[in-house]
Amino acid sequence: MDQEVLRTRMERIRLQEGCIELMKELRLSQENQGTVGTSDCKVQLWDVDYEKHLRSRSSHTARVGSLSWNDHPLSGSRSGHIYHHDVRVSEHHISTLSGHSMEALAWCPWQPNILAYGGVTMDRHIRISGSCISSFDTRSQISSLLFAPNHKELVSAHGYDHNNVVIWKYPSFTKVAEHNDHKDRVLSLTLSPDFSSVATVAGDDIRLWKCFEVNPVEKKAKERMVKSTSSVIHQSIR
């Protein structure tokens, strides 16, 4: 299924359910299943093709603020727990990672055993869990994370007290670039299908940032496409 179609369908699901968080990476299962986290502590499983709600789990004890897929989904909440779900079974919560209150989750696409997760205002750390565990203090609340596979970099969105977006070289956490134009908390990030741009959603507006070089083959194909008009603000982060 086309990525834009997936995004549109997931957005319609989000709007009709009033959910606070969508799956950050549109890497669905072969059956095109998606998960949605809600403010009433539930993780919902959806059939994206038919926009049909399949089932819900309410094992979290706080708002589900982050989701990420790696064959099966992970969900994180402000209670400090990350739940691993096996969507092939009805009771799909199968294991728990605890100890840190988090707002963001992201699987590494080129190292599928590596998970990055980010802390809330009092924590402020990006933590890497997998073959080894490491952490880095960003000195700001972390609201969203994503990996950029073409450059092997990690992008983080922040709330109090910086309200910015930062690109980090992974795994050194050397700061590559920073965007400070949002006035309010940056709520979410998403990567464009060609991996070149990052869209940011904040309390004040939506912005689209040119962050990475496009693959030459994909760039030529993109240049042949008719450019569409948009009200989204386009800027460069580098």
Quick synopsis:
It is built from two helices and 20 strands.
What are the salient characteristics of this protein?
238 residues; mainly beta; Lipocalin; 4-stranded antiparallel β-sheet; 20 strands; 10% helix; globular
Notes on the structure:
GO terms for molecular function: anaphase-promoting complex binding; ubiquitin ligase activator activity. InterPro entries: Cdc20/Fizzy, WD40/YVTN_repeat-like_dom_sf, WD40_repeat_dom_sf, WD40_rpt. This is Cell division cycle 20 homolog. Keywords: Repeat, WD repeat. It is a single chain. This protein is mainly beta and 238 residues long. The protein has two domains: 1-99, Lipocalin; 140-238. Helices cover 10% and strands 45% of the residues. The strands form five sheets. Strands 1-2-3-4 form a four-stranded antiparallel sheet, with helices on one face. A four-stranded antiparallel sheet has the order 5-6-7-8, with no helix packed on it. A four-stranded antiparallel sheet has the order 9-10-11-12, with no helix packed on it. The chain is globular, with a radius of gyration of 17 Å.
- The helical percent reads 10-25%
- Under the CATH scheme, the architecture of the largest domain is Beta Barrel
Number of helices: 2
User: Could you say what the CATH topology of the largest domain is called?
Assistant: Lipocalin
* Uncertain stretches of 5 or more adjacent residues: 18-28
Strand portion, in percent? Answer: 35-45%
Globular, elongated, flat, extended or rod-shaped: what is the shape?
globular
Please, how many domains? 2
The H-and-E topology, N to C, reads as HEEEEEEEEEEEEEEEEEEEHE
How far apart are the first and last residues' alpha carbons, in Å? 32 Å
Biggest sheet overview: 4 strands, antiparallel
- How much is the radius of gyration in Å? 17 Å
CATH class membership of the largest domain: Mainly Beta
The largest sheet has its strands arranged as 1-2-3-4
Q: Which structural class do you get from the secondary structure elements?
A: mainly beta
How many DSSP E strands? 20
Instruction: Summarize model confidence as the mean pLDDT.
Output: 78
GO molecular function: anaphase-promoting complex binding; ubiquitin ligase activator activity
Keywords: Repeat, WD repeat
Organism: Labrus bergylta
Protein name: Cell division cycle 20 homolog
